[in-house]
Amino acid sequence: MSTADPTIDALIEMRRARRRKRIAQIHWVDAMYQVYITAIVGLVVLVLLSGAAGGSKLSPSGLADLLRRGPAILGLIPAFAFMAGLRSGSRGGPLALEQPDVRHVLMSGAPRGYVLRGPAIRQLRSFAFIGIVVGGAAGLFARHRLGSNPAELVACGACFGLASVLLGAGAALVAAGRRIPRWVATLVGGIVVVWSIADIAKRAPTAPMSFLGRMPLWPLRLDLLALAPAAVGVALAAFGLVGIAGLSIENAERRTKLVGQLRFAVTLQDLRTVLVLRRQLAQELPRENPWLGSGHYRRPPKRLVFSRGLRSVLRFPASRLVRLVVLAVIVGFSARGALDGAPPLAALAGLALWVAGLDAIEPLAQETDHPTRSESYPIEIGELLVRHLAAPALVMLIVSVVAAGVIVLAHPTVDSLRIAAIALVPMAMLGLAGAAVSALMGAPSVNDEISAMLPPEFAGMKNVLRAGWPPLVSILGVAPFLVVWASHRSGRSPWSAAATAAIAGVLVALFVAVWVRYRDDIHDWWKQSMEEAKQQKSSKDAARPQRASTRAAPAPNESDDDRPDDEWDEDDERDEDDDWDEEDEEPDDDEDDEPDPEAEGDEESK
Amino acid sequence: MTDDDNSPAIEAVGLTKVYADLPALHPLDLTIEAGQSVALIGHNGSGKSTFLRMTAGLLEPTGGDVYIAGWPVGEIPARATTSFLPDDPVLYDDLSVREHVEYVSRLHGGNGFDGYAQDLAERFKIADRLDDLPARFSRGLRQKTSLILGIARPFSVLLVDEPFVGLDAPGKNTLLDVLAEVHADGAAVVVATHDPEFVERVDRSVALRDGEKVFDGKASVSEVLALVST
User: Which of A461, A492, A523 is the last residue of a domain?
Assistant: First the structure.
């Protein structure tokens, strides 16, 4: 099939040729096996988690409250997606092209709209899939609390996820194609988000995204107005696809380099590199001048490492500070939700703490990014790293204070104040501890001998555990809320249990600090032990054929009775070994008759 | 504006580029006539690559305009006219040299891998590697592939950024010859380089320093060296 435009023909042919090569390189059995394993494991985990998460069914008054306040709170999700999409689009996102595509295809005479529409549709499709899966899973999790038909909840959740994603991705495509300036994108997105927040506080008329927030609650109350923002999402996506030809080549090329590296870092599970590249993609650079102070030391600081960390924190760009506040608000609302009978939200709160910690840990991460410099300082690296925890701890304490404020404001009672006060320190410390583990752990080693010995399923499981335990540490930070919720259910006084959970959390955080201090020593000790074990094994292995050769070359005219006792013992052991070996190998008939020359040599050398 | 016989090959009017608050190119007015060969010289960070990339349409000017044969940069006729050879070869991992030339040339309205491309491959001594993947090539071979890609397609304005870096001596001589032939065929050739051998051959040298034009004319090698070293 050929078109009127020869450049389009060439493009189609090139894409076909590349697809053919890609398909030819796929190991189908492996690929199908991976898909099968992922699907099965994903489904089982989802069903088990949603079953275990449970939570009590909402009372009629609770349901009424949910219908009144839920849409505005749920509307925050598409509002943030819309703002993130607009901002990403103003920087050339969400498309991530290959660099040669930018240089050779976009710079050719081929119509850019035609060139870009295919990748844009593929990207939309991936986003839509993610939105549907996440939305559907959330619907599944909500079934115990709402008590509605699970299929309806899953379907409505999936539709909500899809609509949110379309709003975000559509806004991004429009912003990229129409080259909307960044400040306009931030302003418009910010208005939508602030309106949604004001709607939650009942300080503004219904926000546009709150209408969409009614969609996941359709099984409780059908409201077709929710379709309006969803239709806007579809229109934005369509409009974005039509106008994608206007994409800035400069932005496309900048993104293309970073996205390539980002994908590579993701395949290596190198979280720190992913974070750094993501910040570069978002052009999130440290401030030239700190928020406070001039950037110059008037006099040498007493606590140098802490002071250096503080400078780093004071150079956080506005976008990172806003993200920290947003994460704190998410922690607050999620913890409040967990307290009020939706325990799965505790996981969300813990994850938000961990993400905030990853931002806060920047001074320490900078040190690990430049190991040659850090190791050149005349100070134990562990001690240096522990000192680097102080400034991020301060940041996390502020994050926790904001989260605690949200918890109290959402339900202003003395009990709320009590639990917020109890959880304040563990939230800060464990949010930071999880992030510190992530930052210091680095990417999995490609020369990991243990993983190399494991079958693929176990190696994969090991990788999942490796990636999963730092967020789990952070989730422990919100354990006091779960304890209070559980105590209320069983009718016991929650405060002593909550305090115990908080103390346990602080102890875990201190344990992580000790690990940070001595991890190099621990690694060295482990490495040395492994080396010693390896040496012992190899010397044992070396001894085995020697014994066999001893038997192959018996001393002439030596009777069993003439041998010393210890040789007797050795021979008995050898016989056992031989019995075992015989199962694997056919015994050599000539072995006893014909001495092995090499064995003789061994004997001589002995 | 549209293409006509009198339009210069490149016309930059008040062309400016500022990164954050750091000016990379101060307002620059520069006209390069069709068929002219120009050496763009200057020390590192002087704005040569920024100028070339803006002229190729890879960077967006902060201010001012660039026209290629009378067309605003970025428009289809301007793209069809301009061939840009970057200092960092950008190639697909999964296409052989021959496939690269075939598709890229046709995307620009050329004949694909034709006799001229074969001739270039032979002169650059990679004819025996045409069916290999450049992803596995050395830096120099990738550079040669990139040069063939940029020259085998149709163009009338050739922009080249530091082309001699990474090339061996025979490769460099071949490139000097090819650039001379391209120029003789009527294309405007603009090369950012410090290489005195090329500067000797060009009609005109334009020197930039800290984003500003400090010299425009025919320069001797000693003048060029003085300009680059200051």
Answer: A523
* A329/A432 same-domain check: yes
CA distance B143 to chain A (A): 14
Nearest residue in B to A283, CA atom = B20
Q: Which residues of B touch A249 (CB under 8 A)?
A: 57-58, 60, 74
Same domain as A92, residue A219? yes
Report if residue A541 sits inside a domain.
no
Nearest CA in chain B to A21: B94
Domain positions in chain B? 10-229
Name the nearest CA neighbour of A168 among A234, A116, A113, A225.
Answer: A234
Do A241 and A383 reside in the same domain of the chain? Answer: no
Residue A90 lies in a domain: yes
More reliable by pLDDT, B53 or A568: B53
Distance, CA of A537 to CA of A85 (rounded, Å): 57
d(CA B20, CA A504): 48
Q: What span, in angstroms and rounded, lies between the C-alpha atoms of A554 and A603?
A: 10
Amino acid letter, A191: I
A22 in a structural domain:
no
**Side chain identity at residue A21, one-letter code:** K
Residue B39, helix vs strand vs coil: strand
pLDDT confidence tier of residue B95, bands split at 50, 70 and 90? confident
Q: Which chain A residues are within 8 Å of B61, Cβ to Cβ?
A: none
CA distances from B43 to A138, A255, A258 (A): 58, 28, 27
CATH says B10-229 is which class? alpha beta
For A253, which residue in chain B has the nearest alpha carbon? B58
Contact status of A148 with chain B (Cβ, < 8 Å): no
Percent of chain A with pLDDT strictly greater than 70: 83
CB contact under 8 A, A111 and B76: yes
Asked if the model's pLDDT at residue A131 lies above 60, the reply is yes
Question: Does the distance separating the beta carbons of B59 and A250 come in below 8 Å?
Answer: yes
| CA atoms of A125 and A238, how far apart (whole Å) | 13
Q: What is the pLDDT of residue A569?
A: 43
Task: Residue B80: list chain A partners with CB under 8 A.
Answer: 108-109
Residue B71, φ and ψ in degrees, nearest 5: -100, 140
Is the pLDDT at A593 greater than 50, yes or no?
no
Distance CA A352, CA A135 (A): 18
User: Which pLDDT does position A111 carry in this prediction?
Assistant: 87
Q: Are residues A253 and A137 both part of a single domain?
A: yes
- The total domain count for chain A is 2
CB-based contact A431:A474 (threshold 8 Å) = yes
Regarding whether A428 and A513 lie in a shared domain, the answer is yes
Give the range of the structural domain holding residue A197, as residue numbers without chain letter: 54-267
CB A419 within 8 A of CB A498: yes
Q: What is the mean pLDDT of residues A469-478?
A: 91
Is there a single domain that holds both residue A230 and residue A317? no
User: Is A245 part of the contact surface with chain B (CB cutoff 8 Å)?
Assistant: no
Res A456: pLDDT: 61
Kindly report, residue by residue over A189-237, the tens digit of the pLDDT.
999 998 988 888 777 778 889 999 999 988 888 888 889 999 999 999 9
Question: pLDDT tens across B23-71, in order?
Answer: 889 999 999 999 999 999 888 888 999 999 999 998 989 999 999 999 9
pLDDT exceeds cutoff 70 at A50: no
pLDDT of A600 > 80? The answer is: no
| Whether the Cβ atoms of residue A346 and residue A338 lie closer than 8 Å to each other | yes
Segment A493-510 mean pLDDT: 90
Residues 6+ apart with CB under 8 A from A535: none
* Predicted pLDDT at A405: 93
Q: Does A596 touch chain B (CB under 8 A)?
A: no
Q: Report strand pairing: B212-217 vs B204-209.
A: antiparallel
In a domain, A386, yes or no: yes
